[in-house]
Amino acid sequence: GKAKELIYTCATVKADEALKIGLVNKVVALESLMEEAKNMAKTIISNAPIAVRLCKDAINRGMQVDIDKAIEIEAEDFGKCFSTEDQKEGMEAFMEKRAKNFSNK
């Protein structure tokens, strides 16, 4: 596929092409790069820290194994996430239509 072609040929890709082929999620002007990065970071850190960590874990470990093991890892991490106080807080905040206040527990 395209990824192999880019790797094997050491080709460079312009921003618009990288966006078109899914190599990047967003293209921004250089002047707004830091603002965009900070906005994404703010969005990520507004989520439950445990959930973010477990998502990262499932992705990283899941990429190293076959699909059956990856599904097992995802289910395991989902179970860990679902048993946290932050999960309860997130659901309550959603139901009560209020801001979430995660405790990292």
What is the element string, with H for helices and E for strands?
HHHHHH
Spatial shape: flat
Q: Give a count of the beta strands, DSSP E runs of length 2 or more.
A: 0
Q: Which homologous superfamily in CATH is the superfamily of the largest domain?
A: Lyase 2-enoyl-coa Hydratase, Chain  A, domain 2
C-alpha Rg, in Å? 18 Å
CATH architectural arrangement of the largest domain: Orthogonal Bundle
CATH topology of the largest domain: Lyase 2-enoyl-coa Hydratase, Chain  A, domain 2
- How many domains make up the coordinates? 2
SSE blueprint:
Layout: H1 2-9, H2 15-20, H3 33-45, H4 49-62, H5 67-82, H6 85-95
Protein name: short-chain-enoyl-CoA hydratase
Family: Belongs to the enoyl-CoA hydratase/isomerase family.
Keywords: Lyase
